[in-house]
Write a structure and sequence with these properties.
Shape: globular
Radius of gyration: 16 Å
Distance between the termini: 38 Å
Number of domains: 1
CATH class: Alpha Beta
Strand order of the largest sheet: 3-2-1-4-5-7-6
Oligomer: single chain
Largest sheet: 7 strands, mixed
Order of helices and strands: HHHEHEHEHEHEHEE
């Protein structure tokens, strides 16, 4: 119910109350779960990197493709909430989706997360945006298509990020990197907080 209310509030255009975030509760949850995440969740170091990117960039409307059981989502939502925003996250597997919902409640961040169960191949195309931060960590052979679908929905100053780029698991990962690097209106680099690597491409112009 909290997730539904948060989504409804966001759709109506009301700001989320960032002052309600319990930092101590989020920190305790993340420390308590450190080293216990499975199901291809991001490493702790990459979670910290995502938190820093969203917080310092003052990003509010965040989209995550590939929730898993919610480790990266917690970091993203924690930062977005502090900026007065929220995260929309998509997961295709119902078991992981349900586990993520429970984790969001435990971390105290459920009101800042619109968690959707479904196929991102379809859902991404239907989301209106605009977004100012995207984190892609789902099927690698769809990385390029995710970027192509979301580039028009990313505002100037927004960032498209993608996980596991230091060890590409599909040719489409490398193709996505080259496509973003080749765009004159993007500034790109790779965050190397962990051995997985996060591509960061930020839009500098229309």
């Amino acid at each position: 119910m909290k997730l539904f209310i948060a989504a409804a509030i966001a759709c109506l255009g009301f700001a989320v109350d960032a002052s309600a975030v319990d930092d101590a509760r989020v920190k305790a949850f993340l420390e308590g779960q450190r080293g216990q995440w499975r199901d291809l969740n991001v490493p702790y170091e990459d979670g910290e990197a995502l938190y820093r990117l969203v917080l310092e960039g003052k990003h509010k409307n965040v989209l995550e493709i590939g929730t898993s059981t919610g480790h990266s989502t917690v970091w993203l939502a924690w930062a977005a909430a502090k900026n007065g925003g929220k995260v929309t996250t998509i997961e295709i597997d119902e078991r992981r989706h349900q586990a993520a919902l429970a984790n969001f409640e435990k971390a105290g961040l459920a009101p800042y997360i619109d968690a959707r169960l479904g196929n991102a191949h379809d859902l991404v195309k239907t989301l209106p945006g605009p977004f100012d931060f995207v984190f892609s960590d789902a099927d690698k052979d769809w990385y390029l298509q995710y970027f192509l679908d979301l580039d028009p929905k990313l505002g100037v100053g927004g960032c498209f990020t993608a996980h596991n780029v230091l060890r590409p698991m599909a040719p489409q990962v490398s193709e996505m990197i080259e496509r973003i690097k080749g765009k004159a209106n993007y500034r790109t680099y790779i965050d190397r907080s962990s051995s997985e690597g996060i591509l960061v491409g930020c839009k500098t112009g229309p």
